Amino acid sequence: MDKQKLLAGLPKVDQVLARPELESMAGRAPRSLRLKAVRLVLEGLREELLAGGEIAAGKLSLEGVAAAAAAKAQELARPSLRRVVNATGVVVHTNLGRSLLAEAALRRLLELNQTYTNLEYNLAVGARGSRYSHVAGLLAEITGAEAALVVNNNAAAVFISLMTLAAGQEVIVSRGQLVEIGGSFRIPDVMARSGAILREVGTTNKTHVRDYESAITSNTAMLLKVHTSNFAVVGFHHEVPLREMRAIADRFHLPLMEDLGSGVLLDLTQFGLPKEPTVPEALADGADLVTFSGDKLLGGPQAGIILGRADLVERIRANPLNRALRIDKLTLAALEATLELYREPRLAMEAIPTLRMLATPLAELTRRAQGLARRLRALGLPRLAVDLADGVSRVGGGALPLAAPATKLVAVRVEGFSPTRLEEALRGGDPPIICRLEDGRLLLDVRTLVADDAAVIARVLAGLAA
Ligand SMILES: *Cc1c(COP(=O)(O)O)cnc(C)c1O
Q1: Could you write out the DSSP letters of every residue in 241-306?
Q2: From the CA of 288, how far away is ligand 1's center (Å)?
Q3: Is 304 touching ligand 1 by the criterion CB < 6 Å?
Q4: Judgement on whether residues 284 and 317 belong to the same structural domain of the protein
Q5: pTM
Q6: What mean pLDDT comes out for the span 272-281?
C-alpha cells in the first residue's frame, strides 16, 4: 500500500484515547500523560512511514496503536526514583541508595509523619525545644560521647566543624590522609571552602609525631585525622595513631578531630571482617570530635553525626550555617529508631539490614544461591543456563576496601545474549536488576537480595529467555 494511504489511515488521537486499553489506565496515568503517549506513538509511526520503513499492519491498527500507547503511558507515569534489585553483592552501594532501613526505622518514619510531633517542642516546659535532643542522649549512651549534633550528611558534618572551629586558621593533616571520597568530596577542597587553611605534614606514605609538632604555630586551630576508609596502603607506611595525636594535642592545647567516614558502632571482626576503628574507640582514644555518616555501616538514614566535647559541639550547633545543614524530621525519626537497636548489639545485628547482610554466613548464602538456581531452572527454559560459583562480596560505601567476605554466586547465561547484552537487558528490566560482570560472566550475588528480589529475577529472566 502506498505511504500516503497508510498515513491517512492511522487512527485519530481521540479514537485511541477512547480505547479501553487507555481508558482503564485513568487511575494510574492522568489524561495529560495518556494524551502525550498517544501522540508520541502516532508521531513515531508517521516518521517511520515517511522514512520508508515497513510496518506490520497490526501495529498501524487502532488496537495496535492503543496497546503501544498504553505501554508508553505506563512508562511515562513511572516514578523516576524507583526500586532496583541489587544483585552486585556490594552491601553499602552508594549509587543504589546505601543502607536499607530496619523495619523499626520504617515504622517510626511512617508513624511520626502522619501526626504532629514534639520535633522542636519541649513537652516538660511547654516551650520551644531542640530537635537534636531526641538523639543526643541515645548517642551518648551508645558511644560514651559527651555531646552530639546531627546534620544532613557527613560531608556537612566535616564542613561545619572545620568552618566553626578553624576558619582563618590552620588545620594540620597528614599527607597520607588527604583523601577523595566518591562524588568529589575531597578533604583539601572541603577545607578550602570552610575557610580553614590546610597545613599538610609528612609524606604520602609516612607521617611522624615530629611532623605534626614542627608544623604547629600560634595560628594552628586543630589537628585532624581522616580515616582513610576507601583505600589501603601496604608496605613502607606509618601514620601516627590517634592516641599519640592526643598526646600532641594535649601538649599544645589543641582540639583533635577525626573524620571516621563510615562510623562503625560495633566491632565487625566478630563477623570475620577486618578491623575498623569504632566510634566508641575513637572517642576513648582521645578524639575531641568525631564525625561519621548515618547511612554507611551504621545502617540508618542519610545523616552526618558529630560527637564529642560539649563546648565544641555547642559552638558548631550555634553556627548560623547549621540551620542550612540541619537534619530533617523524617531522617531524625528513622535515625532515633535505628540507634535504639544498638542498645542490644545482637538485636542491631539482626534488625539492621546492612549489618545483617555483612554477617550472613556462607552456609546461608549457599542455601539461598541454591534456592535461586533451583527457581530459575524450574522455569524450564532451554535458552537459560544457571550455575553456582564461588566469589566474594564487597562492603562498599568507601569502607573496609580490603574486606572480601566469601559468598555464593549464581552465574546466568541466556542463549542469544552476550554477557554484556544480558547485563544491559537485566538493567532495563522492570524493576531493573543490577548485577556483576566478571571474567566475561554475568553473576548474581545473593548477599544483597531482599524482599521478593529472587521472584523478580525469575520473572525478568523468564521474559528474556522465553
Ligand atoms: C563517606 C565519607 C564522607 C562523606 O560522608 P557522606 O555521609 O557521604 O556525606 C566523608 N569522609 C569520609 C572519610 C568518608 O568515608
Answers
A1: -HHHHHHHHHHTT--EEEEEET-B-S-GGGGTPPP--BHHHHHHTT-SEEEEESSSTT-SSS-EEE
A2: 19
A3: yes
A4: yes
A5: 0.93
A6: 90
